[in-house]
Amino acid sequence: MSVQSITLNNGLQMPEVGYGVFRVDEGAELEEAVKKAIEIGYRSIDTAAIYGNERSVGNGIKKAIDAGLVTRDELFVTSKVWNDGLSYDETIAAYEESLEKLGLDYLDLYLIHWPGEDKWQQPWKALEQLYKDGRMKSIGVSNFQVHHLESLLEDAEIVPVINQVEFHPKLTQNEVRAFCEKHNIQVEAWSPLMNADLLSNDTIQEIAEQVGKTPAQVILRYDLQNGVITIPKSMTESRIKENIELYDFELNEEQLDKLDALNEDARSGPHPDEFNF
């Protein structure tokens, strides 16, 4: 299965469907799942320091490379710094630690995980320097609201390539998406299936029957047709495969409108303005 890519604002190509590993523990099961995801066709892998599983993700990547499934430069690996008041130097050290755990020489994308309450300034300066030094291929943010982005852009030397936010039909993030589009910041969805809560939704199930696909595939296709990169998570091989099979159907305007109408600004995770580590 070949995944299409999106060109980021620095010219880097990023697969529009990736494999997420949120809430998965370290261990052999995760290593094999990452290897299997790569074998199935995923080329983007998303993890984070706070997930506590970077070492297993790295081991899975190494197994896939050693098995001849892929080369390092064919992969797009993302991690995130948990910037709980980190200084500039501590952010640099956090990046080094992530690289060591992943067993990699560089990351394709490194994100500030949460804005916190004015806790991102020093980490962002550190990310800018690491990027300028060629230590990572791109830098971005996660869970930034419009006011966070406005503040960052006031004195940032480098515009983030990505803003990774919770996004799904019940949380369409219209203001954030409009701002990011205006400033050429790509939106990426975490929790695209709302922790599977959306799979039993009547409207989504109805559309799934119409297009002959699963509810998960309908939701992930909705992401792609909205120009949003998506990173579903599953540890089940059949679902890992299902989540990438999104290119043999399209949702029509009526179906997209019905999905848009599900928006309730409902979150499965915390609100960035209320989450202060």
Automatic annotation (TrEMBL):
Every NADP-dependent oxidoreductase domain range: 28-264
Pfam families tied to this protein: Aldo_ket_red (PF00248)
Keyword Oxidoreductase: yes
Keyword flag Lyase: no
Active-site residue numbers: 51
Family annotation (InterPro entries): AKR, Aldo/ket_reductase_CS, NAD(P)_OxRdtase_dom_sf, NADP_OxRdtase_dom
Protein name: Glyoxal reductase
